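Justification of computing resources. Each target in the renewal requires a structure prediction run like the one illustrated here; the chain below, 192 residues long, is used simply to show the kind of job we budget for.
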Amino acid sequence: RFEYLVKRISLVDPQIPQVNRDSKDWWKDLEEFETLTKEQVKSRYNADLAPGQGLIVVKASRQFTNLRTDNNHSWFQIIVAREDGNYSVLPFGKYAAFYAGSTLELFFFIFGTQPAIICYPDENEFYFHREHHATPLVVNPIHLERFFEKVRHDLIKAKKGTLYFQSQGNNCSTWVQETLDAVFLELQLPRV
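Resulting structure tokens:
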């Protein structure tokens, strides 16, 4: 799976056009991260999907059990039906475009604002040294369309340099919550 990390470098660079962000089906231009059978989806996510249904899986990882601001992350796995009866796994996450390299930079990073990017595939999929948790939500095509539209708008903002990351506020978890709010308009979701 190392090849995905190499490809990710170009996918997150907002100056390189990878997908047609003007298309509502922009996500179909992405290289598939993983393919699952219906049985694998049922086993992994405890979800028996009806035709047309998919999953929005809220994922979180942490390296330490205490409440540190570093070494933890929230992101999405999207499970979408393919024409052949299998399912595509598409992981997306929000990151700061640049990370601290020194103690002084870390101070400004923790309390500052940086440009943000949307990563595909989310690199935490490969962080096996961290504890992972997943909450799958069964969704219909309208929910999936809303999800991809929200991410499309965020990709456009990242390309323009107007998507931001703040470690103490507007971070990956906030992005997950705001995206869920945009997808499930009919629900009052609890704050995570």
